[in-house]
Specification:
Elements lengths: L23 E2 L1 E2 L5 E4 L3 E10 L3 E10 L28 E4 L5 E8 L2 E9 L6 E7 L4 E8 L8 E2 L8
Antiparallel strand pairs: 1-11, 2-4, 3-4, 4-5, 5-8, 6-9, 7-8, 9-10
Length: 162
């Protein structure tokens, strides 16, 4: 059997997108500030950019004493290639019903920065949660309205899947 052209992959409609669309300019969102602090640490989620399918953002954590080099805040270990147990009370960040995908980041002793992508859920707003019990930051939620998706600018039709 011979092929008459490039093969196309079937769209995987059951999986949320792992990256922002390549054909859109994002819209900056004013959804914050989302800031948490205790006596020794401070955290902010900032730089939210909305696409039609989700948002990118940066998480920044600072510490005056607690080492941040071993913190791994993305809450869903099942999505990681090598999941590991998280110590009780660790910094946790997640989103209800959808994954938070880390695209880049870095950690030093007193600073942690993570650039992430999170798709919108099939229905409703995007609801994030954050907690760091060991540092006195209790569970809290913050949301990005689904309507933010309408502010992205599509430049051209998306490329067909191959």
């Amino acid at each position: 059997m011979t092929s008459s052209g490039p093969k196309r992959r079937r769209p995987q409609t059951d999986r949320p997108p792992e990256f922002p669309p390549d054909n859109e300019l994002p819209a900056p969102l004013d959804v914050g500030p989302f800031t948490w602090r205790s006596a020794d640490v401070g955290i902010t989620a900032t730089g939210f950019l909305a696409y039609s399918t989700g948002v990118t953002f940066r998480l920044v954590a600072l510490s005056k004493g607690v080492s941040l080099q071993d913190e791994d805040p993305v809450a869903d270990d099942s999505l990681k290639p090598f999941p590991h147990p998280r110590p009780a009370g660790s910094l946790r960040l997640g989103a209800q019903g959808v994954p938070v995908t880390v695209h880049s980041g870095g950690a030093r002793k007193n600073r942690l920065e993570i650039d992430s992508w999170t798709p919108f859920p099939p229905d409703g707003d995007l609801v994030f949660y954050l907690e760091w019990p060991a540092e006195g930051i209790e569970y809290s939620e913050f949301r990005v309205p689904r309507s933010a998706a309408t502010k992205a600018v599509a430049l051209w039709p998306p490329e067909p899947l191959r």
